[in-house]
Description:
- The chain is globular, with a radius of gyration of 30 Å.
- The chain is α+β, with helices and mostly antiparallel strands and 591 residues long.
Amino acid sequence: MKIKRTHNCGELRKEHKDESIALNGWVENYRDYGGVTFIDLTDRWGLTQIVFDPSISGEVHKIAQSLRSQDVIAVSGKVTSRPEGMANDKLDTGEIEVYVTELEVLNKSKTPPFDIHHAEDVNQEARLKYRFLDLRGHHLQQNMIFRSRVTNIIRNFFINNEFVEIETPILTKATPEGARDYLVPSRVNEGKFFALPQSPQLFKQSLMISGFDRYFQIARCFRDEDLRADRQPEFTQVDLEMAFVDQDDVMAVIENLFEVLFKEVFNKDLKLPLPRMTYDQAMLEYGKDAPDLRFGLKIVELSDVFKDSGFGVFANAIADGGFVRAINIKNGVDSLSRKDLDEMTPFVKTYRAKGAAWIKVNEDGPQSPIVKFFKGGEIEALYEKMGAETGDVLVFIADKESVVCQSLGALRLHFAKKLNLIDENELNLSWVVDFPMFEKDSDGNPTPTHHPFTAPKPEDVDKLDEDVFAVKSNAYDIILNGSEAGGGSVRIHDNEMQQKIFSLLGIDEEEAREKFGFLLEALQYGAPPHGGLALGLDRIIMLFLKAESIREVIAFPKTQKATCLMTDAPGDVSAEQLEELCIESTVELED
RNA sequence: GGGGGUGUGGCGAAGUUGGUUAUCGCGCCGGCCUGUCAAGCCGGAGAUCGCGGGUUCGGCCCCCGUCACUCCCGCCA
């Protein structure tokens, strides 16, 4: 390489006029006029137009004419200001161009499989197979640079606030609960397995007991579960833990972090403290524990209106212990077609609801397939409760509570999108607090809502023996535009309480000792009260960038089947490797 | 595990009630061109229509299966 750059492709301006400079980069586009040839030269900093003129060097110009997209070149020449009227105000460097005197072709490129700078509509298979090219495109480059910047702000924030960054093991131990583990066989210990961490949970609690008050880590986590648009099996948590704190202390740190992020990234002032909502209210009014507060369409509880309803579907649902709830779509009569309303049924069937009922509030009375069943006074009581006015459309679900919440929660979002009720530029942060300690699993047994190290609210401790499902915990989630951006809790720092929780979860003493022995032991050696939280970094970056998929903020993401099309992972391994690990595959046997 | 969507030259798309020489744009190759900036003009190459069956005189089109990508439900303490 003879010509080394003196500048990057994004920095030359009018002030550099007449300077002799050198640039390195990739050919993005060429415009060949036979006489004069323009090339757009790019690197990650920007784009500079370079000009090849045969009157400067016929030889150089001739080679330039053969350059194609993604060829790698080095050029030297003189910065000139563009002729009158020829400036390009779309480019930072648009007032200048570089007349090339010397050209070095560092590497020719094969014709790229797709237009790397306009790959949004290209099929994922091609993009993921050629990820190294996709990542050369402006869009993903900017996303990755943005991510780096945000991560750096976060790291600085914690360092500036007396947090210690500590790395925890990637090779660790399988946990009995939670997501499926990714397993790694141990060669040295025949027949034994490591697991990749689902989160550094136990280590960070251990670090609090060690006295590393205020720990943080940008930690890679692994969960072997199915993927979604906002979920990858390998993802990054901003993990933190603090000693001698209560819930409000942890929440305050996170609020301050977001305040800094909003200021530095968007130059916006985040209003603190962030609003808080209880889990119960979120489920009732928004149907999910991560409510999107950018729009209304709140869910209204109607069981007292309909408990004796003439409409059997409603009355029976309530009699069976279920609920009737509804949302009011203001002015929906004008904006929703009959088809829109009919399509609700297949839509809510996804969430195991049998159907969705509706009432159009017309000027001349209600229009609906169900009102004819109502008894006297029902419609009036309903309108009153829903604040219904002429032009509104009321949408109902009657079912068991989980189905009502999920269905109406989803319909709420569905109609908000359809009716453009969401300001896409808003970044809405809020807290959901007072989660229940336990949820019922499919057998009706208690399973932790957060994780088994979460502390119950002190005032609810007595209820642990009476009604475990009534116990609330000191757990909190931070919600960004209806997505869980992070969650945490105050932890149990008392061995007896921890043992009690394990036993409520059906983890007997032996299993507890085997799986979490060190934690139970450590809790007996001066464990301070502590609590923390973990943020989903990928998801936050995604929401900040308004990206539609988490793939857009991860350099090398997996496909929905959790494979990597670039490396072709996961792949086969040799019989020797397996043998060394004492592993035998059963795949052939299963058929 | 279940449901939906997509699959046509390298990329993005069109393709009528089943009969076309499978169309268009970009890119690619050749040529012209001294001021463009996703340049323009002329010419050219490039496709067993994801794969496998079936129905039919005849399938890009209809049916069955299958694969890949994708969105959702389940799952994700």
